[in-house]
Design a protein that fits this description.
The protein is mainly α. The protein is built from seven helices and two strands; from the N terminus they run αααααββαα. The chain has a domain of 105 residues: Winged helix-like DNA-binding domain superfamily/Winged helix DNA-binding domain (Arc Repressor Mutant, subunit A). Helix 4 crosses helix 5. The longest helix has 21 residues.
C-alpha cells in the first residue's frame, strides 16, 4: 500500500495532543534525532558523521583533549572513541601524541588537513542549525542555547 502525500505530517499532527508530545525527554530525544539526521546528511559529502565531526571539532579546538576527555565530554563509551579517532587518524585529519601530563594517555590534535576539513564541516553544520532554528527569533535561539547548556552541563 502506497503512502499518501502528507501522511507523515498527518501522523505528527495526530499525536501532538498526546502526553508524550509534551514530555521534555521525548522532545529533546526527537530534536536530537532530527538534528543528527540533518547534520549527517550535510556532513556526508565530507565523509563525516556527527560523532566523527564532534571528535574532529574538539581535536581542532586547540584544547588538546585526551581520548578519555573526548569520551567524557561527548557522553560516549571510551571504546566508541577509539574507532572514531582511528578513522580520522587514518585519513590524516588528527594525530595522537603522548599526553605531557600522563604518558599513558594520548592527546588528540587536528592536523592542517583536519583543520581545513573541520572549517568546511562547521559551515555545513551552521547551515543546518540555521534551518532548524529558523522559526525562533535570535533572542529565543540564545535562550534555547542557554537552557540546553544549563541542562547538559549542570555540574
Amino acid at each position: 500500500m502506497a503512502t499518501k502525500p502528507g501522511t507523515t505530517m498527518n501522523t505528527i499532527h495526530r499525536f501532538l495532543s498526546s502526553e508524550l508530545a509534551g514530555e521534555i525527554e521525548f522532545l529533546t530525544a526527537r530534536t536530537r534525532s532530527l538534528g543528527s539526521a540533518r547534520a549527517n546528511k550535510l556532513l556526508e559529502p565530507l565523509d563525516l558523521k556527527v560523532r566523527s565531526y564532534s571528535v574532529l571539532s574538539l581535536a581542532c579546538s586547540g584544547q588538546a583533549p585526551t581520548q578519555r576527555e573526548l569520551a567524557e565530554f561527548l557522553s560516549l563509551d571510551p571504546s566508541q572513541i577509539v574507532p572514531l579517532v582511528d578513522q580520522l587518524e587514518g585519513r590524516g585529519l588528527v594525530e595522537r601524541t603522548a599526553d605531557p601530563n600522563d604518558r599513558r594517555s594520548k592527546v588528540i590534535t587536528g592536523t592542517r588537513s583536519g583543520e581545513q576539513l573541520y572549517s568546511k564541516a562547521r559551515k555545513a553544520t551552521a547551515e543546518g542549525e540555521a534551518v532548524a532554528m529558523a522559526k525562533l527569533s535570535k533572542v529565543e535561539q540564545e535562550t534555547l542555547r542557554d537552557l540546553l547548556s544549563r541542562i547538559a552541563f549542570r555540574d
